[in-house]
Amino acid sequence: MPAVAGWFTGEEDGFRLLGTRCQACASVFFPREDDHCRNPHCAGGVLEEVPLSRYGRVWSYTDSRYRPPSPYVSNPDLPWVPYTLIAVELEAERIVVLGQAAPGVTTADLAVGMEVEVIPGVLQKDPEAALTTLTTWNWRPRR
């Protein structure tokens, strides 16, 4: 089950993030925008769903080694697993998209400007109930 409905589509080879483009000014948004153009210089226009580029370049990255403090919600009953965050520049869309690195990818594996690709990922998995597995996207170095 997608962690957020309508933000991505497809399987491994056809996996794509979904954004929206304003027909008036051509601005692209992710997360998607369904109500109005977020460009402050645009009077607004019809927004259309667009698949975003599968490949981009690392704009920045960091790791998260510690459980977030209050007021952020994290389940204290689950073990904390460090993860790597990557900000990826999609050149064609002229936007930066944030996401977790694929499992096993650490900050030591990354460099600013490196090409990466978006792939399906798992945000949360309940080992006892496959229906509650929440899917999302990850970034990994391009092969």
Q: What would you note in describing this structure?
A:
This protein has strands spanning 8-9, 16-22, 28-29, 47-51, 55-64, 83-90, 95-101, 115-124, 134-141. The protein starts with 7 loop residues before the first strand and ends with a strand. It is mainly beta. It has no helices and nine strands. The strands form two sheets. A five-stranded mixed barrel has the order 5-6-7-9-8. Strands 1, 2, 3 and 4 form a four-stranded antiparallel sheet that branches. The chain has one domain (8-141).
List keywords for this structure.
143 residues; mainly beta; four-stranded antiparallel sheet; 9 strands; 0% helix; globular
Order of helices and strands: EEEEEEEEE
The main β sheet shows up as: 5 strands, mixed, barrel
Mean pLDDT: 89
**Helix coverage percent:** under 10%
Shape: globular
Proportion of residues in β-strands: 35-45%
Find the count of extended strands (DSSP E, 2+ residues): 9
With strands numbered from the N-terminus, the spatial order across the biggest sheet is 5-6-7-9-8
Number of discrete helical segments:
0
| Count of domain modules | 1
Organism: Streptomyces pluripotens
Domain ChsH2 rubredoxin-like zinc ribbon: 16-47
Protein name: Benzoylsuccinyl-CoA thiolase
InterPro entries: ChsH2_Znr (IPR022002), NA-bd_OB-fold (IPR012340)
